[in-house]
Prior knowledge:
Distance between the termini of chain B: 51 Å
Shape of chain B: elongated
Oligomer: heterodimer
Helix content of chain A: 55-70%
Number of helices of chain A: 9
Number of helices of chain B: 7
Structural class of chain A: mainly alpha
CATH architecture of the largest domain in chain B: Alpha-Beta Complex
Amino acid sequence: MADSVWVAANAPALPAAAAPRHSALVRITHWLTALCFFALLVTGLEIVVSHPRFYWGETGNVHMAPLFAIPIPASRATVPTGYGYTLPDQNGWSRALHFQSAWVLVFTGLLYFVAGFFSGHFRKNLFPRGTDLSWRALSAAIADHLHFQPPSETEAWSYNLLQRLSYLAVVFVLFPLIVWTGLAMSPAVVSAFPVVVTTFGGQQSARTIHFALTILLTLFLLVHVAMVILAGFKSRMTAMITGRASTPRGYR
Amino acid sequence: MSDFSRRKLITTGLAVTAGASGLVAASRLAERYGLIPPDHGTLYGAGATLTYAAQRLLTRHSMAREFPRSEISNPPFANGEPFKDEAFTRLQAGGFAGWRLTVDGMVAHPAAFSLDQLKSYPSRSQITHLACEEGWSYIAEWTGVPLSHVLDVAGILPQARYVVYTSIEPGWWDSVDMADALHPQTLIAYGMNGGDLPVGNGGPLRLRVPRQLGYKSVKYITRLTVTDSLKKFGKGLGSASPEAGYAWYAGV
Lengths: 252, 252
């Protein structure tokens, strides 16, 4: 006890680079979410292949006009696709892994939400700073991105406005909605809580929105990875894996 | 230093022991309250168990949504080609007068019911949604005798935990727990949209389990077996579905 007080009082001030860039909680939940998202994406596409048609309202089947159809062959012969063959059907394990990953994703998300509020992670790192909330700041940030301006040194240590806004959208809109639309497709869940599905106007509408959200999250993932590469793949990956950030050469 | 690591070791050891015994206690409780599905030991059993346990706690007595007549899918939908074999064709030619539904297992009065007998019991009609794991769905009005009524007539024994149902179509058999077996909307359906149940939709007899996905509503049923354990049926996973990689519980 006495030892630790001595250490704290006499240690030189830590250099900024030794403080974690991302807390352990953020790093663990980030990679768990990434793993779950990958599993959900692959299995979700596999499930979609069994009926690559989308509808609006409560019901949808091959007797009905789809809202849109993905022009790919299906894994079930009963779906008219215009192709003379069917793809291999892998729905069994795909569904099982989809729901198992969804459970892990939901638990991870809950942990992240609760800890994010109490630790001040959302307030400090995600909600835009007061000075950033102006059209001028927003257009400047967009212009910087469009001109491929390398990130400033402070950005190795915090998120810029566009990052904050897109992470907020992913965390508070896209992920909650994709879980919600997923639950809206469950016959047992909607038997107990009909409002889960009626909000979307029906089970098929929920399925279509679930798919649209998948596209949006996938687009986010592509841009996210592209930005990590542009900002310095090694330093950003190091920061998200070990928590350590260094200011790499080439920064202004 | 060694004191510190010993203390850490003891704390970790205690935490692991507490966690492990907590899990054991939780699984005993879950088993006692019927929250463990028969296919819990499969590769994705953890996810399947979480889903089943959560839904048995939250939706045990919930009622599947029922719709106004105007929502009935038109034209009616039938998935795939109707089943056909020599025995079925012979029964069909006789207007299914020779069709029997055998009830055996843990019942006081094993019996075999004809369609006319089943139709003489109090009937129930309900307009519900049927969704397939593939993604399509339709709404129809289903008419039949509640499974609970037939189980009452046969006199189920108190130790009954599951009802196994078998199709005349080879390879199709499934089971439900008592929560679904005694649920007022679980029907032995013989009618659809005001007429006899078409062969394409499972006629002459289909078990309708509206709080689960379509594959639990097995077509062409000929036998009900009441049991306290699913271990001796097929591979002991509760139905043919888990043997093909699909979850036994399809409330999702």
